[in-house]
Amino acid sequence: MLRELELKAKYERGGWPAQPRPDIKPPDGWSVPLITSVGKPRSHSLSPRAHRVAFIWDFADASDIYVMSLEGRWPARMTSDRLPRVPWFDDPPQWSPDGNWIAYTEQNHVWIVPAKGGMPKKITSFTTRAESPRWMPDGYHLLVVVERDERLRILITDIEGSWPQPISEGPGHDYEPQASPNGRYVVYTHSPLDDLDRTDIMLADIENGTIRALSGTAEMESASPQWSPDGQLIAFISEKTGFFELHLIHAETGAERQLTHLGHDVSDIAWSPDSTRIACTVNRRGAVNLAIVEVESGQAEYLRNELGVHTQPQWSLDGKTLMFGFESPLLPQDLYAIDVETRQTKQLTFSNTPALQTLELIMPEEVLYSSYDGSEIPAFLYRPKEPNGAAIVYPHGGPTTQYLLEWDIWAQYMIAKGYTWLAPNFRGSTGYGVAFERANHYIWGVDDTEDCLAGADYLSKSDWIDATRIAIYGASYGSYLVVCALANDPKYRFACGIAKYGDCNILSSWAQSDRSVREDMERMMGHPADDREAYRSGSPVRHVARIKRPLLIVHGLLDKIVHPLQSEELVEALKNEGKTFEYKTYSDEGHGLLRRKNQIDFYHHMERFCDWYLI
Predict the structure, then answer these.
(1) What does pTM read for this prediction?
(2) What does pLDDT average to over the chain?
(3) Is 93 inside a domain boundary?
């Protein structure tokens, strides 16, 4: 149990705080309130008759569910009390097969709301935590994932919230359930506890209660099982060949074959209604393209190769149209539909504001630079039209994620001010194969930190950048790398750092984390009882005395991914060493700043901090 400390929202400092620069104004046409005004429609789901779409809209400090006709009418708000959520911790709403209900997760429970309107109803009062509802074909029963004894289990209940029937059992975690079209079987993903790098595809027979493994390889992940509409095949993705490629299993015989050989990660798979094609997205070095794969031949056809990120393709009933989400560095997230034959695309939602549409945004270029050991590190470079001589290195969170060609309006704002922006996909990032993704396992804060330092060296060679005016900024794992870079760099490449809700002591963070975060850390670093020195050497708080540059630190006090005590520990160490820092906490935020007032507050703090120490 955590040692109880009273944490309240506060602002502290060590040394004189960064002051507003009266000689530096916002870029023409830009303001911080403007860039925080864009809502994000996401996590969409087509109705069974494919004439309506349910989606989550991150708007007005909420992540409520809306339903919209594909004819373009104004969306109807189905919920009114969903708290703001980050997309990767949220689940798309799920239509019942008859189109009468929409199921969703909120406040650690599964709810259903009538599609024609009405009050939501909680159906998982039999447990303390439930998520990921998936409908059975009868439209009355649902599969849900619950946490019991620190294990994820799949149960079946109904729209009345009746006492559930277990579907999965045994050691490990079970999730991503999907019922077969005839309702007899459930396919799901299983994560064994004795191999945290492994996930298997499992099949449960509801009638006789048997469970068998369909596919699994030691130290390799398989995921996202999806039944074909005819019930003959199960599609899933697996990294056993080095990338997440598309695989098929015959449901009756168990015969498996690899369908794609693209050398890129495949995700978001969706069967066509006639079971002959699979729509998916393909990550090609940070651009996530929309593709269709022929089931018989494995031939992949790219429908859209735009520099951006496509998500969640879903088929119309006639198989002629695909609905999807799309965003890019130039466009915020919106929902679209494409005619598969003609490639004509129709925009369905319009989240961009007129004021932002008048501004000129920058499309980054992919660059490669060499790290300390000769490894090539991919990165995205935003070069301002009028450089001010300063630059920011932005390592992403995760670490097993990737900086993609997404909407990053804060980067665009800073670029408009003249800052150069470099977003490295350091070793440990996804999208470049299994070997690269696992290259920082057991050595957090070592080689990946060197990759960030090499990013500063790369920028310093540019004739428009002053090598003494480079900052490093990151959130979550990126924040951890910020502190590592300032504490473990004898050359002091960075003029300042901005650390946003990140670790500083991965040993104490492991103890403070909840079960899922703790296991993910063990997957990449091993158990601290087996290699405590790796945890100690990867904890930059032990080297705070080496830090010579000012730090801006922010954290949400409701954070359950990285406990706010991590920033408290860092600040205490900085105080003891007499270091220069500013520290701001937010009482109503978790792992991410989701409320607009807090976003505005943080952006103003960071802008002032960078202008003070870099210009």
Answers:
(1) 0.96
(2) 96
(3) yes
